[in-house]
């Protein structure tokens, strides 16, 4: 399952920042994120909403990797801290002790870089949904193994997994990596369900045997998924699984009793017992018995609606 918007509220907020002094980097950060469709972009724009909006050209956004664009003739890139630090050098004014503290607190770090170095860092935090722990516990009670697939850092993924009671997690994943992880499980013979809400999850949702989208997620996620949790509450997922299991069980019961009834009743109605004991079923009684069998099947099906 995805983390942001699935296990967490999906409404992250900026809890810390650093910008190179005497620069328009606040405005540049705001202007690039204003055009982005990433789930974190809204939180960044809310934090920097008082900054002036600059003209952006050659804008490009790659799901799971970040944003590249030009502002005033200069190239800038927004992406995760891990990705940009592997490609750019760090500014000498960057307070690394502060960044390390943010990482220890499992915050999500988003960085802005120019052609040479990282010039700004924002730390964002997203609150867990109040029902996530109970939802995961109920899934485990059903014998379902859970795993978090996220593009966030190892520290963030580990912290969230620990809080909700999930042992397995995969961090720093691109959308293609999520698909590859699901494919690997399928090759091993597992039936895989994927729960997500973002554009980045759509490929993984399409690959999974069962795909579930959150009702407050992106349109493409809901269009791709087989099922949508309208309330965006993960606690509804174990309820939906129990309902589906009960429905399948009821269908099998109805099929069994329908076949059993017909195998026994049709030969009797055809006069099978007449040569043996002279018993002949009245056609009116046979018709009433057939109607009664339909009533019993419908009544058994209605039982599902009264179970919680």
Layout of helices and strands:
Elements: E1 13-19, H1 25-34, H2 41-47, E2 57-62, E3 66-71, E4 74-80, H3 81-85, E5 89-90, H4 96-104, E6 108-113, E7 117-125, H5 132-141, E8 147-149, H6 154-164, E9 168-170, H7 175-187, E10 193-196, H8 202-207, E11 210-214, H9 219-224, E12 227-229, H10 236-269, H11 274-277, H12 283-302
Parallel strand pairs: 5-7, 8-9, 10-11, 11-12
Antiparallel strand pairs: 1-7, 2-3, 3-4, 4-6, 6-7
Descriptive account of the structure:
- InterPro entries: ATPase_P-typ_cyto_dom_N, HAD-like_sf, HAD_sf, P_typ_ATPase, P_typ_ATPase_HD_dom.
- Keywords: Membrane, Translocase, Transmembrane, Transmembrane helix.
- One of its GO terms (biological process) is copper ion homeostasis.
- This is Lead cadmium zinc and mercury transporting ATPase.
- This protein is an alpha/beta fold.
- It has three domains: 13-125, 3-Layer(aba) Sandwich (Calcium-transporting ATPase, cytoplasmic domain N), CATH 3.40.1110; 176-229, 3-Layer(aba) Sandwich (Rossmann fold); 244-306.
- It has helices at residues 25-34, 41-47, 81-85, 96-104, 132-141, 154-164, 175-187, 202-207, 219-224, 236-269, 274-277, 283-302, and strands spanning 13-19, 57-62, 66-71, 74-80, 89-90, 108-113, 117-125, 147-149, 168-170, 193-196, 210-214, 227-229.
- The strands form three sheets. Strands 1, 2, 3, 4, 5, 6 and 7 form a seven-stranded mixed β-sheet that branches.
- Helix 9 (219-224) links the parallel strand 11 and strand 12 (227-229).
- It is elongated, with a radius of gyration of 28 Å.
In short:
Keywords: Membrane, Translocase, Transmembrane, Transmembrane helix. By secondary structure, this protein is of the alpha/beta class.
């Amino acid at each position: 399952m995805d983390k942001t918007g699935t296990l967490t509220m999906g409404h992250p907020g900026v809890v810390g920042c650093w910008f190179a002094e005497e620069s328009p980097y606040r405005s540049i950060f705001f202007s690039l994120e204003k055009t982005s469709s990433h789930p974190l972009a809204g939180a960044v724009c809310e934090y920097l909403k008082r900054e002036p909006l600059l003209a952006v050209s050659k804008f490009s956004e790659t799901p799971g990797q970040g944003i590249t664009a030009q502002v005033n003739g200069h190239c800038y890139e927004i992406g995760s801290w891990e990705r940009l630090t592997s490609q750019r050098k760090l500014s000498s004014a960057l307070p690394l002790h502060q960044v390390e503290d943010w990482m220890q607190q499992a915050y999500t770090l988003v960085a802005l870089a120019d052609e040479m170095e990282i010039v700004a860092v924002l730390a964002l935090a997203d609150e867990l949904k109040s029902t996530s722990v109970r939802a995961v516990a109920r899934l485990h009670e059903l014998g379902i193994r859970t795993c978090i697939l996220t593009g966030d850092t190892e520290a963030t993924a580990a912290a969230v997994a620990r809080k909700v009671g999930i042992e397995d997690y995969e961090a720093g994943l691109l959308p293609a990596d999520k698909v590859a992880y699901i494919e690997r499980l399928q090759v091993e013979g597992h039936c895989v369900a994927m729960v997500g809400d973002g554009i980045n999850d759509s490929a993984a949702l399409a690959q999974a045997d069962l795909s579930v989208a959150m009702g407050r997620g992106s349109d493409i996620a809901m269009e791709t998924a087989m099922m949508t949790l309208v309330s965006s509450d993960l606690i509804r997922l174990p309820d939906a699984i129990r309902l589906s299991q009960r429905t399948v069980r009821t269908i099998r019961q109805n099929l069994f009793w329908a076949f059993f009834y017909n195998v026994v009743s049709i030969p009797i109605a055809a006069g099978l017992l007449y040569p043996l004991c002279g018993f002949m079923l009245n056609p009116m009684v046979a018709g009433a018995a057939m109607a009664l069998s339909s009533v019993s099947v419908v009544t058994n099906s209605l039982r599902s609606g009264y179970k919680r």
